[in-house]
Amino acid sequence: MNPKVSIIIPAYNTEAYIAKAIESALEQTLTDIEVIIVDDASSDQTVEVAKSFTDQRVKVIINQQNLGVSAARNRALRAAQGEWVAVLDSDDWYAPERLEKLVLLADTINADMIADDVYLIKDGATSPWSTLIQESGGHLDKIIQIDIVYFVETDVYGQVGLHLGLSKPIFKREFLVKHGIEYDEDIRMGQDFWLDMKCLIKGSRFFLEPKPYYFYRSRAGSLVHQSKLSRLNQCCIATNSFMQQEVVKKNPDLIHALSYHLAVSKKNLAYFQVVVLIKEGKWLTALTEITKNPSFFYDFISRFYNIIDRRIQYYVMGNKSVFDMSYNLRIKRKSTN
Asked: What's the whole-number mean pLDDT along residues 176-187?
């Protein structure tokens, strides 16, 4: 008999974290589960840690070469047998009751996918500093349904919003299989957002439970901290591609939301391209880029206070977390107040 939930855990060089992730999966109050770990050619002891778990519900798959997190997740998706699929990053963890709560809610309201609020916790901290909904500046006290336009409008780079692309919904596997939905393996950052978009454009009934059951660890070295240029460039390419779909073109509100999403990403991409060149000491090339992007100085001035504040915090106050997600989210909130 197939399990109720397949928990898929892509892993790459997270030997210090993955045990907690696996333990949180195995300690779920909903015990009818399978845990599928796909190691993406780690060079540390991640595989050994994963294989140390003798619970029969745990399956470890090993990629012989690094294919990226999307490919690792797809391999786990293809191996999954559960009625529901739950994604867990190997440096995050679940509250014990998470799956039981979400599956019961999903079955009750006939959801195809359902997300919960997300605890935000710094690496090494003993308790969360906030949640995704709290940092959005909004307040939710009941389950709401998320439509595709709202999903896009509230997840714009650098702006305050729900940013549900950071959430980890559970998905009805039948829906994914029926529509042939998998992760885009050309996208190595922000994959969750685009998988959710694929589901929503196919008519998925997506709900948000305002209670948090997922612990999102903010740490140096994770994908979220990697190159802004790569992230923004991939976002622009993916947005352009999505907008070419006929079903998208027939939805004016969605086109408008995606166009704004794309414009903001392009603006930030142009800004950070200049910043990177300046940091590398390539002044002439940077000047050439500035002539192509006359709004650079306006953008720089608008960010100047935050730039100085970060450096004072980092170099004078010794606050080494000023470049992590928690600090950046708080800066965004302050700038809109």
From this structure: 94
